[in-house]
Amino acid sequence: MNMESHGLAALGRDLQGVQQEAEQIAAAAxxxxxxxxxxxxxxxxxxVDAQGHDAQARMQSVERGESDDLVGAMLSSQQANLSFQMxxxxxxxxxxxxxxxxxxxx
Length: 106
Hints:
- By secondary structure, the chain is mainly alpha-helical.
- The protein has one domain.
- The chain is built from 3 helices and no strands.
- Helix 1 runs antiparallel to helix 2.
- The protein is elongated.
- It comes from Pelomonas candidula.
- Residues 47-66 are annotated as: Disordered.
């Protein structure tokens, strides 16, 4: 297995982890546990933030000449970008659900 396919496999596993966390948050929201959903969202937010910081550090390392792992840095950057996009999709779904709840008449 070459380095690029190894990086893609790692990216796939990380994205599956983010997707599972999003599904857990949705399940907590369906169960009516706002506190559990907020905790899960916070964990997912921290994970995405950590991925962004890691990607930035790897890119800076390549730019300074301390590392020659350009492929790994690029894959890390793409992983962070995709995780952030997925986080924004989850956020948009939650905000849409909140808007729907506010529109309900009791």
